[in-house]
User: Fold this.
Amino acid sequence: MSDEKDYLHPDEFGNLGINTDSAVVPVYLGKNDKFKFNCYPGISCFNECCRNIDIVLTPYDVLRLKNNLGITTTEFIANFTNFYEVDGHGLPGLNLKTKDDMKACEFLTEGGCAVYEDRPTACRYYALGNMAMRKKDSGEAEIGYFVVKEDHCKGHLEDKEQTVAEYRHGQGLEEYDEMNFGFQEL
Assistant:
């Protein structure tokens, strides 16, 4: 039996009653599961994921970004974010403002991300997503991951294979996930 995951192509989702407009590949991945992805400055789609965005910010993202920019939290929120209501239940959230008709990230430059070392959690995770699942009678969340494949992204066509754990480590996500855990529980 192979350890390799079988992924459905989005064209096949409709046969299963799955929303075909979604970029999410509906395969649960654990930390030791492998997937193919590589992003680097020479790839043809470089920086495309920084356009047409809706980046939700965690409190830790705000802290890292405002420190990177050398401004106060109040200044960062006023100049770089929009408020929104999370899931229509009155809980306030923040997302990153965009700067033009292409809804490009405020920090996008020709050379890439101007705040790369302190980029938000959502940017670090791309092209993965994470989710917390609870069994019916359990209060403990099990963290899982899934692949996000958008049409513009060519990183999935690269040969670099890695485990979810290796990818997360390479993106510096352990610290971000630890700091964001309480926020994600909301």
Observations:
- The radius of gyration is 17 Å.
